[in-house]
Amino acid sequence: MASLGRLYSMFDDVVLPEDIPYAQMSDWEQKFLYLVARHHVNGTGALVELGSGGGGSTYAIAKGLRENPAFDEKKGRLHAYDFFRVGKGTFATQRFFKAGKAPEGGNSFREDFEAALAPFMGFVEVHAGDIWNTSDPQDKSPIEFLHIDIAKTARVFRCVAERFLPRLEPGAVVLHQDFASPRLPWLHHSTGALLPYIEIAGAPIRSTLVFEVVRPIPAELLERIAKDEYTVDERLALISAVQDEVDLDHTGRVPFKQVLELAKAYVCHYEGDHRRAWRIAEPLLKDPYLSETRADHFAQLRRALGEDAAPAPAPSRVRRLLRRVTGR
Ligand SMILES: C[S@@+](CC[C@H](N)C(=O)[O-])C[C@H]1O[C@@H](n2cnc3c(N)ncnc32)[C@H](O)[C@@H]1O
């Protein structure tokens, strides 16, 4: 089994087909998924992808598994979880349809996903729908490969933390997509809490942080993560601990220390402490990467601060009249 660190020297060996399905991630990340599936997986546990979308990431994993001599297609399964449909609150894009948009009156891209993954459907198992409904709370079977590209809300992250993280044992590998998104700080502080039990593979690959579990993770810690039983200060300290472990991503594009600093601002923002959020965010305006790629984040944080400071709207005439009558 290749150590995860060794996979970084193998990018040039990977050739993915030109017509691989559209993916909401970089080629680098697709290639790393392939490399982990090809060289790291050894068939000892479940293989799980949370947030398969149109199959661009699933395809890379499935191709790696097919070329991995340790993977037995007759027995092994790659579990693919997704809504497999577009619509409000799904975080799925119309680009997951083969045609690039949903057909008249249709919202499911499951058929397109299965057609794109046809060469591998013998070992890909689709779990279509809200992950809270499609995952089994009783399933405690060990997971050896976990790609997380679904935790776009705290509600969904809770499901991941409750039902999937407890199934990780030493040797398991986790790939956290969207780790470069400051709006998802639960990815960052939960990783901080796991640090004593994991080894980060190396520099993040664009937006993906990869780690291996190296020690059993205590059940109480996992419960604390799932219930998010941390104060704001504790969450900020956990993110700082991750900042100590990461810097520029492997391709030299994403400055993770700064990205995670902005994630701290979002911890405060979600708690309604907009002043503290802005105090953290404002100095980051000077960072060229963040000011170029996250202008909308700064605008959101500044707007929230402005809304806090704005005077309460003047009472309407009707309300003034009511007040006079009721005395309230
Ligand atoms: C960023 S996309 C995944 C992209 C995909 N991995 C790729 O490489 O193109 C996130 C996916 O998470 C799915 N998703 C978000 N919340 C979900 C939930 N509660 N249950 C099931 N799927 C969910 C969306 O349908 C969406 O396809």
Total separate domains: 2
Kindly report the average pLDDT value.
94
**Can you tell me the CATH superfamily of the largest domain?**
Vaccinia Virus protein VP39
| Global shape | globular
Report the count of strand segments: 7
Tell me which CATH architecture of the largest domain applies here. 3-Layer(aba) Sandwich
Major β-sheet, in short? 7 strands, mixed
List the total number of helices: 13
Determine the structural class based on helices, strands and strand pairing. Answer: alpha/beta
Distance between the termini: 73 Å
Give start-end ranges of low-pLDDT stretches: none
Give an overview of the whole structure:
This protein folds into two domains: 4-235, Rossmann fold, CATH 3.40.50; 255-328. The protein has 328 residues and is of the alpha/beta class. The mean pLDDT is 94. It is built from 13 helices and seven strands. The termini are far apart. It has a seven-stranded mixed β-sheet with strand order 3-2-1-4-5-7-6, covered by helices on one side. Helix 3 (110-116) links the parallel strand 2 and strand 3. S-adenosylmethionine (SAM) binds next to helix 2 and strand 2.
